[in-house]
């Protein structure tokens, strides 16, 4: 039988990656393993996994298992996982955030997508085969025609081997957010979800929450179990008459227990149960006349399989996941405020870079550290929202590259520099990307940059019918690149939370995302990457708002809340249409109005002067031979197809 550990094997897993592992300052394509020669060539970054594989196969033999699957996530389908759950990295040596390992008695293989092929070849030894595919979901289909089946087992074999080397279970306190930083009380949220349960045509009696951000959002609780995410290991079983929170009870203070009304047992009291009891508790609950509503995207197979099919209501996303995607007016205000302060930190960094890069003293890693220091001086800061992508020159062509203290590249006035970073604040989560050049960019670099900017502008100012899916309008971000045969290989945007996930599903422009709705926040981030030379990405966070149209109807558009100007040195104004230029100048005026006063209030006069210079209105130049930018009415109808 091919088996997988129940606690971390997804039923339907959605994977996304936000960080490159341990890149090198030279061309990363050169220093990879070569297993075809004898002896094999192995870079110094390779991890010897012979001992791990030998021990795992011994356990497989004991358990009568012919193949063992090690996923890249945890029991909650988290995008970022704590050190305690990095089983795949420990068994393979590969530290990328996307990839699934399969071990049989005779072979070991890793499946990962194109973002991580080079990294895998630099980190894995020759015990491992690299399969350049995206997922293992097809395994289950393939196994149907064989004498094997895919099942779960409750004992995680990797954990048995890991032993004392395994990082400890997180034990930091679980705390309640102050009321000033929450959109609604947890009691209001619970009542809202129960109201949805009553209105559901299949009449669920309970909702099972597996994603860590679901429980954190529902109860306005936070902690620090997961890097870059203020979550804690937990599940919630919310029924029509009870609330059961599965977590480590010892981590709750008496104040937090009182906040949760945990000393009583009525329908608005939170009953704390041990984290490890969730499977047994859910199974016991199903013995009654019940129906459990789940979101399959974040529910492990170990929980899915204990719910009888006739008692299961399965949607792609749980009602909590969908509800928290739409921010109320208070949450919108909080997120806007966090982006103003975040802009101050990023602007301070860009000013510092302008002064110091020409001196030759700045590298990718030290720069990223300084930016985090600047963010740390902002009010309500609680850490970075992901590993900073600080990439100079050819390193920026790797879409998810991040430097390390040992392996990094100097910043130079002769190269483009891409900075993708974000912060976690008590009032919001931020994510912004800017690409700059302090010297003289080539004509092609300026054209590519400007076309990326045009894509950002065209999508940001688009007006579209309510309930339109993001995938139906995503092409607007690519059209200016497509016009000249350029493109980018990553998604165009993702949702973002209020002191929650920096990549918050199910909002965005991919096929698995839900339709756009007023109150959602999404990133808009087109790019272009010239392999071995440079990379460009321009990312802003935008709020979905109601559009003002000439005629009656419900239409939406975006309000950009990121507030850092683009690099004037890289903009070819002649490629911009009058409409795009007008939009850009209005955006710059908004930055002046919202960030300028904050810089003045804090006596950051050098930064204020920089802001004034970089937001001067841009003047049109000679018109291009063919306009890139009228908002393509006919094309819009074709792309939208009205099938949303």
What does this entry look like structurally?
Helices cover 30% and strands 18% of the residues. It is of the alpha+beta class and 644 residues long. The strands form eight sheets. Strands 5-4-3-2-1-6 form a six-stranded mixed β-sheet. A six-stranded mixed β-sheet has the order 12-11-10-8-13-14. The radius of gyration is 25 Å and the shape is globular. The model is unreliable at 1-29 and 624-644 (pLDDT under 50).
| Count of alpha/pi helices | 18
Structural class: alpha+beta
Proportion of β residues?
Answer: 15-25%
Low-pLDDT sequence parts? 1-29, 624-644
From the spread of the alpha carbons, the general shape counts as: globular
- Oligomeric nature of the chains: single chain
In angstroms, what is the radius of gyration? Answer: 25 Å
Proportion of residues in helical segments: 25-40%
Going across the biggest sheet, name each strand in turn.
Answer: 5-4-3-2-1-6
Give the biggest beta sheet: 6 strands, mixed
What is the gist of this entry?
The chain has 644 residues and is α+β, with helices and mostly antiparallel strands.
Brief descriptors of the model:
single chain; 644 residues; alpha+beta; six-stranded mixed sheet; 28 strands; 30% helix; disordered N terminus
SSE layout and pairings?
Layout: E1 2-5, H1 50-63, E2 67-70, H2 87-92, E3 100-104, E4 108-111, H3 117-123, E5 129-131, H4 138-143, E6 150-153, H5 157-162, E7 175-176, H6 186-199, E8 206-209, H7 212-219, E9 221-222, E10 235-239, E11 243-247, H8 254-259, E12 270-274, H9 278-285, E13 292-295, H10 301-304, E14 312-315, H11 319-324, H12 329-356, H13 364-376, E15 381-384, E16 389-392, E17 416-421, E18 423-425, E19 428-429, E20 432-437, H14 443-460, E21 464-465, H15 479-482, E22 494-495, E23 504-508, E24 521-524, E25 527-530, E26 534-537, E27 540-546, E28 555-560, H16 578-601, H17 605-614, H18 633-640
């Amino acid at each position: 039988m091919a088996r997988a550990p129940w606690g971390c094997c997804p039923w339907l897993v959605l994977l996304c990656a936000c960080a490159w592992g341990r890149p090198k300052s030279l061309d990363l394509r050169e220093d990879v393993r070569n297993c075809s020669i004898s002896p094999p060539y192995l870079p110094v970054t390779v991890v010897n996994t012979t001992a791990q594989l030998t021990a795992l196969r011994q356990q497989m033999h004991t358990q009568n298992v012919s193949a063992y699957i090690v996923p890249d996530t945890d029991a909650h389908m988290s995008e970022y996982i704590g050190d305690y759950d990095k089983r795949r990295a420990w068994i393979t040596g590969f530290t990328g955030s996307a990839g699934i390992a399969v071990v049989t008695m005779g072979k070991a293989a890793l499946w990962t997508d194109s973002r991580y092929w080079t990294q895998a070849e630099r980190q894995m030894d020759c015990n491992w085969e690299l399969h350049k595919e995206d997922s293992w979901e097809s395994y289950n289909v393939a196994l149907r025609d064989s004498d094997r089946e895919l099942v779960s087992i409750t004992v995680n074999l990797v954990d048995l081997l890991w032993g004392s080397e395994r990082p400890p279970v997180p034990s930091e306190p679980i705390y309640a957010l102050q009321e000033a930083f929450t959109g609604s009380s947890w009691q209001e949220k619970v009542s809202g979800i129960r109201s949805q349960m009553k209105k559901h045509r299949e009449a669920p009696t309970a909702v099972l929450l597996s994603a860590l951000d679901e429980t954190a959002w529902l109860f306005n609780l936070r902690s620090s179990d997961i890097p870059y995410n203020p979550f804690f290991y937990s599940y919630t079983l919310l029924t029509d008459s009870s609330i059961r929170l599965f977590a480590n009870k010892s981590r709750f203070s008496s104040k937090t227990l009182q906040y949760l009304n945990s000393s009583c047992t009525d329908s608005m009291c939170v009953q704390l149960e041990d984290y490890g009891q969730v499977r047994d508790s859910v199974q016991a609950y199903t013995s009654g006349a019940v129906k459990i509503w789940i979101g399959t995207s974040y529910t492990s197979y170990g929980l899915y399989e204990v719910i009888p099919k006739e008692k299961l209501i399965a949607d792609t996303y749980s009602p909590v996941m969908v509800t928290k995607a739409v921010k109320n007016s208070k949450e919108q205000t909080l997120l806007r405020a966090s982006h103003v302060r975040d802009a101050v930190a990023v602007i301070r960094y860009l000013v510092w870079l302008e002064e110091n890069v020409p001196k030759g003293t700045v590298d990718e890693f030290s720069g990223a550290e300084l930016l985090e220091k600047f963010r740390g001086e902002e009010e309500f800061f609680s850490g970075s929202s992901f590993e900073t992508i600080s990439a100079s020159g050819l390193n920026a062509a790797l879409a998810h590259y991040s430097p390390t203290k040992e392996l990094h590249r100097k910043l130079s006035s002769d190269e483009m520099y891409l900075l993708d970073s974000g912060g976690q604040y008590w009032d919001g989560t931020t994510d912004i990307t800017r690409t700059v050049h302090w010297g003289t960019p080539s004509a092609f670099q300026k054209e590519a940059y400007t076309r990326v900017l045009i894509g950002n502008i065209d999508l940001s100012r688009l007006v579209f019918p309510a309930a339109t899916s993001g995938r139906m309008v995503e092409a607007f971000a690519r059209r200016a690149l497509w016009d000249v045969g350029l493109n980018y290989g990553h998604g165009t945007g993702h949702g973002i939370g209020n002191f929650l996930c920096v990549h918050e599903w199910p909002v965005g422009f991919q096929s698995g995302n839900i339709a756009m709705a007023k109150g959602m926040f999404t990133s808009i981030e087109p790019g272009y990457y010239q392999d071995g030379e440079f990379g460009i990405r321009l990312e802003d966070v935008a709020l979905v708002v109601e559009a003002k149209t000439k005629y009656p109807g419900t239409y939406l558009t975006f309000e950009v809340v990121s507030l850092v100007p683009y690099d004037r040195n890289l903009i070819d104004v002649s490629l911009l249409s009058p409409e795009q230029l007008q939009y850009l100048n209005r955006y710059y005026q908004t930055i002046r109005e919202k960030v300028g006063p904050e810089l003045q209030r804090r006596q950051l006069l050098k930064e204020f002067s920089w802001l004034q210079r970089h937001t001067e209105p841009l003047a049109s130049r000679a018109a291009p031979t063919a306009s890139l930018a009228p908002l393509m009415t006919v094309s819009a109808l074709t792309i939208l197809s009205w099938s949303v």
